[in-house]
Amino acid sequence: MNRMSFYNEYLSTLSARSDKEAIGFDIKYTHFDENPNLMRSVAEAGGSAIHLVRENVLETFVSSQVMEHRLSTGAIDKSQVHGRSVPPPVKVELDVAELVSHLRNRQQRIADIQFAIESYFPSWVYLPYEGLFQSIGSTTQLSTDGRRKIEQTVSVPIQGIPQTELAKQIEGGTFEVVSNYDEVSETLRDTEFAHLAK
Length: 198
What we know:
The model has no long low-confidence stretch (mean pLDDT 79). The chain has one domain (48-196). By secondary structure, the chain is mainly alpha-helical. Helix content is 46%, strand content 10%. The strands form two sheets. Strands 3-4-5 form a three-stranded antiparallel sheet. Strands 1-2 form a two-stranded parallel ribbon. The termini are far apart.
């Protein structure tokens, strides 16, 4: 039995559970590249889709560059990509010649995934990552608006207040991390991404 068959069997088992429970899967864009039929299989098992999107494509790109730098220099290993502590700060230099093209490709990828979700799922919500969490004291928890949208989509109330102990992996703003930020800002000035460079 191949991996996709095991996955389909797992989905079928879960879909037979109580309608008072909701089973969630954290599926990354790269998973769709590895398994082209994955979205169809998930949709056929029933359920709803929550498209959690980082709309600030510049911050997303910078974050990926920081992680790649930390991995390549041995500052962290793959098990520490997301953790409770913040690794030592780093500076990265962005290739401005490829930057706009990369940001446009990322925006297109988001649109393609959203189109596929709308094609396969009768119930879905587009949920921007920005503003999804709120800090209350020393804890970070799901925002009231985010919780409401998720509950409306999956039709199951969330028990308790979901919190996270994971630390923000990049402290400060993008301008503090990117060593050639002035060049980046100038490159984006006359593009549709000008508002992302502050």
